[in-house]
Amino acid sequence: MHPTPTALPEARPLDTALVTSLVEDATLAPSMHNAQPWSFGFAPATRTFRLRADRSRAMPQSDPDGRALLIGCAAAVFNLRVAAVHAGWDPVTRLLPDPADPDLLAEVELVRRPPESYDELAELHPALRRRHTSRAPFRDERIEGSLLDVLRRAALLEGARLAFPDAFHRRTILELSSEAMNREQAEPVHREETARWTEGPGREDVSEEGIPRYAFGPRSRSGGAPMRDFESPDDTYVREWAAFEESPQLALLGTVFDHPVDWLRAGQAMERVLLEATLDGLATSVASQALEWSDLRWAVRDPAAAMGHVHMVIRLGYGPQGPSTHRRPTGEVLTIG
After folding, report:
1. How far is CA 111 from CA 46, 105, 108, 139, in A?
2. What's the CA gap between 135 and 215, in Å, rounded?
């Protein structure tokens, strides 16, 4: 249940401490394999953040067109907007503001809000630090339709659509997810890229980026949840086994078109959905491995829906929120001046 809406406080001074805090909140966003492929610049004279893509953290095997990279960066943009509103500022956001500079993904100018104004984004701020990817089993309790409508609205507010596949289409998605995982295991180059961002043999140094072992979740003993196993075949790390839900509750997030600006809208919509779900007591994880293969991605879409292109498969349910994962120091991703 959300708190009763109240007017936002007076804007806090945009000093170094607040700018740093805003970026710390922004970088709590999820990204593919927790690669955190972003950098922020802040210009005090114009009170404007500039978010750039960090292509050194790209994954050419899993994400050849950079779509997932942009989605992760857009999730960080959304978190920045939430944090700015919570601090009393109005974030005026421009996506892809310079056609000659495609790695400049967004500019977020902070302007003063009218007195006694309200923005519902502020309600999402408590969820920033509570939202974690959960690779644990969820209970079989079904999500009420009224809550699904809330999540649909969250996606629509950011220019995307959220659809909940029926049982038949859900089985198709699960089959495609299994096919994607089999393909990854069969391709050494693909496996090596994933291993770079996960804490397996020889990666005990994972600390500020990537997926640590403690976040892998248990191995699946039974159930239909499309859980990706990041453990390599020769790893001797001991993990428990668990029974996952037989009929996972999935959501497809997508847009009509499939251009970089659509990916940025989808990333913001994804994060709004995840934060809303967290506030409403749901656990979430991403099950988008089939989207990493162009032929499988096209088959994931529901032909009966108005969604042209799927950008994310989200698993929802009631269960543990999952552990927090590390973030890069703010000094590495923020430049002021």
Report:
1. 9, 20, 10, 44
2. 7
H-helix or E-strand containing 270?
Answer: helix 260-279
What pLDDT score does 306 carry? 73
pLDDT in tens, 123-146: 999 999 999 999 999 999 999 999
Q: Which of 75, 72, 67 is nearest to 291 (CA)?
A: 67
Edge-to-edge order in the sheet of strand 89-95: 89-95, 104-112, 48-53, 38-43, 334-336
**What is the tens place of the pLDDT at every residue in 176-191?**
999 999 999 899 999 9
Calpha distance 204→206 (Å, rounded): 6
pLDDT computed for residue 207 by the predictor: 67
Distance between CA atoms of residues 250 and 136, nearest Å: 15
Kindly tell me the sign of the dihedral angle through the C-alpha atoms of 89, 19, 126, 249: positive
Above 70 in pLDDT, residue 1?
A: no
* Nearest-10 Cα torsion for 294, 296, 299, 300: -100
The helix, strand and coil proportions of the chain, stated in percent and rounded to the nearest 5, come to: 35, 20, 45
